[in-house]
From TrEMBL, chain A:
GO terms for cellular component: mitochondrial large ribosomal subunit. Belongs to the universal ribosomal protein uL1 family. It comes from [Candida] arabinofermentans NRRL YB-2248. Coiled coil: none annotated. One of its GO terms (biological process) is translation. Keywords: Ribonucleoprotein, Ribosomal protein. Pfam families: Ribosomal_L1. CDD domains: Ribosomal_L1. This is Ribosomal protein. The keyword Ion transport does not apply.
Automatic annotation (TrEMBL), chain B:
This is Ribosomal protein/NADH dehydrogenase domain-containing protein. It comes from [Candida] arabinofermentans NRRL YB-2248. GO terms for molecular function: structural constituent of ribosome. Its main location: mitochondrion. Keywords: Mitochondrion, Ribonucleoprotein, Ribosomal protein. It comes from the Eukaryota. The keyword DNA damage does not apply. It is found in: Mitochondrion. Residues 55-135 form the Ribosomal protein/NADH dehydrogenase domain.
Length: 279, 157
C-alpha cells in the first residue's frame, strides 16, 4: 500500500524536462451535429436496399440452374464456346468456371485445390525405387514409368528415352544414382534431397507435382480455369465434376452458423459468352 | 447496374437490346446464325485463312470473316479443321507484300484459294459457298434463343 502511495506521489511530482518529452492527449470524442432527418432516412433506405438485394441473391441461388434463361446442357454450351474461340492459339482458348458462393459476413473465404482427371499441363514423372511396393504405388498415383537399379544401368547405356519432366528417387537407391549424374544432371532431372526429389514419401511429391489447381473465394465468387477448348467433351465434363466436388467439399469443411450457399455457375471461354450450367 | 444512355453506348453494343439476358441471347444467336453463314461443307476437309494483324492495305475483310462468319461455320461444322494465321508485319514493305488468302482443302486432295485482299467479308462468304458446293442448314436445325422459348421450356418442366 505504502509502495503504491509513494509511486503515485512520484507521478504527481513529476515535472517534464521539455515540451518534446511530454504530450497531453484528449480522450473526449469530437462533438458532431445531430444528423438531419433527411440523412437518417437516406441511410435507412440504403440499408433496406442492401438487405433486399441480399435476399434476392439468396433466392436466386436456391433455384435450380435449369430455371435460368441462359441455361444450357454442357455439350450444347461447348458447341457455342468452341465456335466463339475459333482460330485462337491453343494456350489462349481455355474454359473458365465462375461460381457464386454466398456466405455470411465474417466467415473465412472458401479455398482449396482441385486435382483434375485430365490436367491442363501434362507432367511426366519417373519413379526409381528398389522397393516393389513403392513402385506399384507410384504407378497407381500417376507416374509414367517406374524402375529399379537395372533401369539405372539402362540409362547409363543410353537405352532409355529420357522424356520426363521429373525423376523421383527413394533413399535406398540414391547411392547407385551417382553413376548417371552426368547424364541426368545437365537435363535438370537428377534427383536431389535439396529439391525434395529424393524422398520416401512418394505420394506427396507426386500429387504435388502432378498439378493441382488452387482456387480461392474472391468477392463472393470462385473462379478458375478448368480445361482447354481442344479437350474432348468427356474430359471437360470430368474436370467440371472434379471441380464441383472440390468446391462442395471445401464448403462442407468451413464452420459457419448459417449454411453457405453455392449459387449459379457460369461456364465461359477467354473470348466467348458466359453460359449457365449444372454444377 | 445503371442504364447507359443511348448516345453513350459503346460500339460493340450497337443495335443490341438493353436487357442483360436479351443481349446475351443476341450474342449467342449471332454465333449460331450469322447472316448468310449457316452452311455445311461436306466436301471440304480444311479451311486455312491467312491475313495480317492490322487492318491496313485491304486485310479488313478477312478479319471480319474470321470474327463473324467463321464462328457460325464452326458451329455447324464442329469436325471441320480450321486454321487461322495472323501475320505480324513490321515494315511497310512487308505489310504490302503480306497475302490475305482463304485456302480451301477438299476431301479429294485438291485445293482452291480465294484472294481476300480488298474484299468485303460477305463477298468472301459468297465465293466460299460457290466454290465448295455448300449446303444451307435448314431453319429448323438452327437453335435460336428467345424469351418465348425460355418460357415454354419452363412451362414444360
Amino acid at each position: 500500500m505504502s509502495l503504491i502511495k509513494s509511486l503515485t506521489c512520484k507521478a504527481i511530482n513529476f515535472t517534464p524536462q521539455s515540451s518534446i518529452t511530454f504530450r497531453s492527449f484528449s480522450i473526449t470524442s469530437i462533438q458532431q451535429a445531430p444528423k438531419t432527418k433527411k440523412e437518417q432516412d437516406a441511410k435507412k433506405l440504403s440499408e433496406k436496399r442492401i438487405a433486399r438485394k441480399d435476399a434476392q441473391r439468396k433466392a436466386l441461388a436456391k433455384k435450380p440452374a435449369s430455371s435460368s434463361p441462359l441455361f444450357m446442357e454442357i455439350p450444347q454450351a461447348l458447341r457455342y464456346l468452341r465456335a466463339a474461340e475459333v482460330g485462337r492459339p491453343l494456350n489462349e482458348a481455355v474454359l473458365n468456371i465462375r461460381t457464386t458462393v454466398l456466405s455470411e459476413r465474417g466467415v473465412a473465404p472458401l479455398s482449396g485445390a482441385v486435382r483434375f482427371p485430365k490436367p491442363l499441363k501434362e507432367t511426366r514423372i519417373c519413379v526409381l525405387s528398389n522397393d516393389e511396393l513403392k513402385r506399384k504405388e507410384a504407378l497407381e498415383l500417376g507416374a509414367v514409368t517406374v524402375g529399379d537399379s537395372k533401369f539405372i544401368d539402362e540409362i547409363q547405356n543410353g537405352n532409355v528415352d529420357l522424356n520426363f519432366d521429373k525423376i523421383i528417387a527413394t533413399t535406398d537407391i540414391e547411392t547407385s544414382l551417382r553413376k548417371v549424374a552426368r547424364i541426368l544432371g545437365p537435363r535438370g532431372l537428377m534427383p536431389n534431397a535439396k529439391k525434395g526429389t529424393v524422398t520416401n514419401d512418394i505420394k506427396e511429391v507426386i500429387s504435388e507435382s502432378l498439378g493441382t489447381q488452387p482456387f480461392r473465394q474472391k468477392n463472393s465468387c470462385v473462379a478458375l480455369t478448368v480445361a482447354k477448348c481442344n479437350f474432348t467433351d468427356e474430359d471437360i465434363v470430368k474436370n467440371i465434376m472434379a471441380t464441383s466436388k472440390a468446391v462442395r467439399d471445401s464448403v462442407a469443411s468451413i464452420k459457419s452458423k448459417k449454411p453457405i450457399l453455392v449459387g449459379e455457375t457460369v461456364l465461359s471461354t477467354t473470348h466467348g459468352p458466359g453460359i449457365v450450367i449444372n454444377f | 447496374m445503371p442504364r447507359i444512355p443511348n448516345n453513350m453506348r459503346p460500339l460493340f453494343l450497337k443495335g443490341l437490346p438493353s436487357s442483360r439476358v436479351l443481349k446475351q441471347y443476341a450474342n449467342l444467336n449471332d454465333i449460331a446464325n450469322f447472316q448468310n453463314s449457316a452452311y455445311k461443307f461436306p466436301k471440304v476437309s480444311k479451311l486455312e485463312l491467312t491475313f495480317k494483324k492490322m487492318n491496313a492495305y485491304g486485310h479488313m475483310g478477312a478479319r471480319q470473316f474470321w470474327k463473324y462468319n467463321l464462328r457460325t461455320i464452326t458451329f455447324h461444322n464442329p469436325q471441320l479443321n480450321i486454321d487461322v494465321k495472323r501475320v505480324d508485319c513490321e515494315t511497310k514493305e512487308e505489310q504490302l507484300a503480306c497475302p490475305s488468302v482463304l485456302t480451301v482443302h477438299f476431301q479429294n486432295g485438291s485445293k482452291k484459294t480465294i484472294d481476300c485482299k480488298n474484299v468485303h467479308s460477305s463477298e468472301i462468304m459468297n465465293q466460299l459457298i460457290e466454290i465448295s458446293d455448300a449446303i444451307r442448314v435448314p431453319k429448323e436445325e438452327i437453335p435460336i434463343l428467345t424469351q418465348e422459348g425460355h418460357e415454354e421450356r419452363l412451362a414444360k418442366a
